[in-house]
Automatic annotation (TrEMBL), chain A:
InterPro entries: ABC_transp_permease, LivM-like. It comes from the Bacteria. The chain crosses the membrane at residues 44-60, 67-85, 105-129, 136-156, 176-202, 223-245, 312-331. It is found in: Cell membrane. Pfam families: BPD_transp_2. GO terms for cellular component: plasma membrane. This is Amino acid/amide ABC transporter membrane protein 2 (HAAT family). CDD domains: TM_PBP1_LivM_like (cd06581). Keywords: Cell membrane, Membrane, Transmembrane, Transmembrane helix. It is a multi-pass membrane protein. One of its GO terms (molecular function) is branched-chain amino acid transmembrane transporter activity.
UniProtKB/TrEMBL annotation, chain B:
InterPro entries: ABC_transp_permease, BCAA_transport_permease. It comes from Gemmobacter caeni. Belongs to the binding-protein-dependent transport system permease family. LivHM subfamily. The chain crosses the membrane at residues 12-33, 40-62, 68-89, 98-119, 145-165, 194-216, 228-254, 275-296. It comes from the Bacteria. Keywords: Amino-acid transport, Cell membrane, Membrane, Transmembrane, Transmembrane helix, Transport. GO terms for molecular function: transmembrane transporter activity. GO terms for biological process: amino acid transport. The keyword Transmembrane applies. This is Amino acid/amide ABC transporter membrane protein 1 (HAAT family).
Automatic annotation (TrEMBL), chain C:
Belongs to the ABC transporter superfamily. It comes from Gemmobacter caeni. This is Amino acid/amide ABC transporter ATP-binding protein 2 (HAAT family). Residues 4-237 form the ABC transporter domain. SUPFAM superfamilies: P-loop containing nucleoside triphosphate hydrolases. InterPro entries: AAA+_ATPase, ABC_transporter-like_ATP-bd, ABC_transporter-like_CS, BCAA_Transport_ATP-bd_LivF, P-loop_NTPase. PANTHER family: HIGH-AFFINITY BRANCHED-CHAIN AMINO ACID TRANSPORT ATP-BINDING PROTEIN LIVF.
Amino acid sequence: MITQHRIRRRMATTTPILLALLLLAFVALTLALGDRAAARMASETLIRVTLVVGFWIFAGNSGVISFGHAAFACVGAYVSAWTTLNPAMKATLLPGLPPALAEAHWHVLPAALTAGLVAAALALVTGAAILRLSGIAASIATFAFLAMVNTIWANWTPVTGGTSSVVGLARYVTPWVALGWAIAAILAASLYAASASGLALRATREDEVAASASGIDQYRHRLLAYTLSAFFCGVGGALAGHFIGVINPDGFYLSLTFLMLAMLVVGGIGSLSGAVIGVLAVSLAVEALVRLEKGFTLGTATFALPPGSQEIIIAVAMILVLVFRPAGLMAGREIMLPARWVTGRGTSQN
Amino acid sequence: MSLQLLFDALSLGGIYAIAALGIALIFGVMKLVNFAHGQFIACAVFALILPSTDAVAALGLGLLPTPLLILAILGFGAGLAVAAEALVFRPLRNASPVALMVGSFALGVALQNFLLVLYGGRPKAISLWAGLGAPVRIGPAEVPLLQLIVIAAVIAILLALGLMLKRSRLGLEMRAAAADFGMAQLLGVRANRVISGAFALSGALAAVVALVMVAQTGVADVRMGGQIMLIAFIATVVGGMGSLPGAVAAGLAIGAASALLQAGLPDAARPFRDAFLYALVIVVLLFRPQGLFAAADAKPRV
Amino acid sequence: MAKLGIHDLAVRYGKLTAISDLSFTVAEGERLFISGPNGAGKSSLLGAISGAVPAAHGRIEMDGDILSGLGPERIARRGLSMVPEGRRIFGGLTVQENLMVGTGIRRDRAAVADDLETAFTAFPILRTRAQAPAGALSGGQQQMLAIARALMTNPKVMLVDEPSLGLAPKVVDEVYDRLCSLQALRGLTLVIVEQSSTRAARVGGRMILMRGGRIVADGDAAGFAAADLLSEAYFGDPA
């Protein structure tokens, strides 16, 4: 006899598999177009999946909006740059690096993992302070954290290069590399969501008072989610750096924060599928708008949207979603196989 | 503390207090953390000049005689905030504070990019009230005239606002609505009137900040509202969310801390002043998560 | 014509039905007690009448005008006032400021001043503490402030939700004493939620007994104890 509960659990395990297949299909489809711009868009989108799914691990499970996750991406990108760049180049670009880093010339994979770990460690330390605050005040503190990291990175010139860009990062991020990390993030997110900590944290999201009355240590679970979440944002930042090959602190500041938030809101913060669908939907919209900003011809006339209109349109769309579909496109639902497929029988049980 | 440092701290803290009040007023009545406040400030700055992407700014409203100019910009700020409320926040009236906050963030991005489309991304020089930089001798210290004007204006605004909240009908209704919105409505208080009133005041306060910033820096920059909004947020958290006296006190305290750090930090560390400031705030909150000046009834109801 | 008429009222919170098919009328100047066990729908009923809770179905009329759907701000302007459960005093405002919040809907300044005087005469403690923060008052004093505050809107109908909650019996006597004399003075129509039927019988008036969102009995409050209707409402089968 299969209980309703076990059917649900089996259905839930299909979610990451289906999401991974969806992304695989997305890569295959864009590569089939044979267009270099399409391949670029595919990598960019999958890097955003890593970032936003990482973001969702905290924001989706805790219900607390963080404005600080772009800072973890920033730290991740620079850690990867510090550890992989050619030492001769670092000597001129970043003369202030400590000797161990100045001489490092790592392979990109350990560098990406280290990027994630450093971001996670930073999250553990700062989260220990920030997450003691109640929801809205914590959000404001994460914003202060973002500004703090940006101020330090923009001014710590010998180590970060200041506001000028760090160039020459190995451009190894193909759509397949990005797909690998995106799937890893999705797996980690669904494992966390199904874990005891994830369940407890979502209970606090629904009702803070009742959850604390039932003995859930909200602070500890938030901190765990925050740390795990920062790991994937750190990795995502490293990938973003190695995708373009050039990084600077403002690339990981308010625009990225806005984009990540918009994706989460449009897709729906209530589910992992919402985070992934949000990235796909907003990325496609951004791609279309960027092309419109570059100009298009209709008959003999050329039209172009003024630069900046892309952000305005995304922002307006985000507000419209908040008003008319507050739970986002997925409205808290997960993509999963129907019950009768997972029971292995013709009909579902009750 | 030297006299010069005292004036620096007072004028900086005063402006922070005004910005923080603009945030706290709206949070008080509708539990909205308004991430668009910085853009209200930036919009009020750009309202002074004509839309163009040229490097040199041609004054528009800025050409008016000073008293009219001040009124016009205050009115512009108030009108912009009231319009934002009607278009964006009224449809979200019953949404959660988190959704409101995210919505205001989106509004801020939209406004900032709207300015970019109209005016371009480069900072522009604005020559307004050039004579205000002249130093005035007070005892042993030389203080720019502008600083004295700012301090006097802040004191006048705080007094007027306090009087308005304490003595006027709208002020009474705003305080009642901030304490218990549903009960105020049961007593016939109109939600729209109170919320529009709070937004109008908040927008006018943003315009004050804008005027002071233009007079101090002489530039218009799309990004200029961001940093002061962040400080204002921090002041409202440190002051206890929604507490107006707390926001003012915290704004002044942060201004003082900022001036002291600027004077006390070694040269090499000075660019990191704001980072020290933010870190200081996170440390303060670690010990008093409810804020330094938390209001008695600010605790969540169980 | 009835002062207040409730016709086929239903209130739902999501799938949960708090009130269904509820109808009754209240005559001008009447004092109506509403009693019943917890969860009977008493507070939902007052919420629906005052406009704080939307009605899922049905019609609420005052003097023949339809109130339902107007929202609390406009219903208050029509002359219906509420003393809510838990009093909901504005703790940071002074006592006098609390009294003045509801006078924004009135144009006649002299009448407002008269009513303030009436409130201070009825509750002398409020005059003594007029400039003190309302949050510093005792529970009984806050209940009196809540009643006086509701009166300052110059209502024709006043809804009072559990005025005796959390107060010592002696203070409850005092609250009801003032409430009744103010009713006589102002010609008010009163609807009071009161858990204790013996209290309602002692104060006197009509009483409606609710259970499971419906009316199970309606009659003179004094007759209820004898008729054994109460135990039926609390322990018997739902009507």
